[in-house]
Amino acid sequence: MRKDWKRRALLAVLAACGSILSVSAGIGQYRKQGKAEIVFIPKVYDEDNDFWMDTIHGARSAAKEFQAELTVFAPEVESDYLTQIAYIEKAIAQKPDVIAISPILYSDMTEEIEKITEAGIGLVLIDSRIDKDIEACYIGTDNINAGIALGQEMAQFVEDDTKIAVVAHVKGASTAIEREEGMRQGLGGSQRRIEEIMYCNSDYGKAYELTKEMFGRRADINMVAGLNLYSIIGAARAVDELGLGGKVKVIGFDNDKKGIQYMEEGIIDALVVQKPFNMGYLGIEAAVRVAHGEPVEKVIDSGMEVITADNIYTGENEKLLFSF
């Protein structure tokens, strides 16, 4: 009797162990089968651009956490939309679950991006939009509100003789369009003081040259706004080298080590700083949800802060600015 009881107990234990192993194997298989395959196509891979490197870092961190297979394709120049289109075609051919893309152009790439959804692949937009509402989710800065914040900062410095030059990045990019619109709203009646709008095609050197050339023929310009990292750093460099620091107000978007140095030196007066790590992380998290057929918010605001010399080293701002 005792032997039969021991035998039955042993069989029960073995059966339980077998069930546990079976469940564990099943979970492992589910994870393997359910591993989302995602391609991320940012605007640029540029190690000198902290914004995009932080965005890519955030994307990779999310992929690791959510056990997704992430491939990153990116042009070497932010204005190179033809290479970005080629990467879209390459990504579609790989048939991933989701393609996350930061489109360089608002309108002129829509037809190519539509091919993603036509191929039955999920679409997530990060940082920038297109002119058709076909994405499962958009993650990025609310560029209208960020532009308004920029304009309001500029308005604080407006005087009777203020004349403004704007250095934008890529003409036709949704971020350039929306930030300018918001900036004008923030400036209110002072938007009439905008005398020049230049496009640097997201090139530090071109932003510098355009700004320097502009001051050569427009010595009366006394405020400069830069609408992305390339724009503001190039413009600030020109202001610095021309000895106009403190005489010309400089306000812009984004930050890097040089931008913080310019703010400490009084060359840059204020920056609207986005949260690129958040943007990349939340973008890939949303892509994983789309891949698994889970609900996802249509629009996710990744946030922004206005940074001045007065708050540069306070609390969360220091963590945001010195992520590099």
Structural write-up:
The protein has eleven helices and twelve strands. The chain starts with a helix and ends with a helix. With 324 residues, it is of the alpha/beta class. It is elongated. 48% of the residues are buried. Helix 2 packs parallel to helix 10.
Q: What is the count of DSSP helices, taking H or I runs of 4+ residues? A: 11
List the secondary-structure elements in sequence, H or E. HEHEHEHEEHEHEHEHEHEHEEH
Rg estimate, integer Å: 25 Å
Strand content: 15-25%
Helix content: 40-55%
Q: Decide which structural class fits the backbone.
A: alpha/beta
**Shape annotation:** elongated
Mean pLDDT: 89
Quick tags:
alpha/beta, 324 residues, disordered N terminus, six-stranded parallel sheet
Ordered list of secondary-structure elements with their pairings:
Blueprint (H helix, E strand, L loop, with lengths): L1 H32 L3 E5 L8 H16 L3 E4 L8 H14 L3 E4 L8 H9 L3 E5 L10 E4 L2 H14 L7 E5 L5 H14 L6 E6 L4 H14 L5 E4 L2 H13 L7 E5 L3 H8 L5 E5 L1 H16 L7 E3 L2 E5 L6 H7 L3
Parallel strand pairs: 1-2, 1-3, 3-4, 4-5, 5-11, 6-7, 6-8, 8-9, 9-10
Antiparallel strand pairs: 10-12
Helix pairs in contact: 2-10, 3-4, 5-6, 7-8
